[in-house]
Amino acid sequence: xxxxxxxxxxxxSSTITMQVVxxxxxPSRGPSGVKFTELLLSxxxxxSFTKEVILGLYLNKIFFSHRAYGVLxxxxxxxxxxxxx
Length: 85
Description:
mainly alpha, Penicillin binding protein transpeptidase fold, 59% helix, elongated, disordered N terminus
């Protein structure tokens, strides 16, 4: 079924790089424009940074619940430990 016939928009899965783009830049356009902008920014980021750096950006920005954003905050909240950077 096509998007036009069923009138639904299903969110596809995205790469970690695309999630970094979404978390840091939050492109604001129509549904198809957002995905295209995310794709272009993701390509630029993947050419500019190593996979380790991209994963680090992701892990230090994602939400782990209970107001814990990033691994350091989650470890402090859930394990009452302080990690060094």
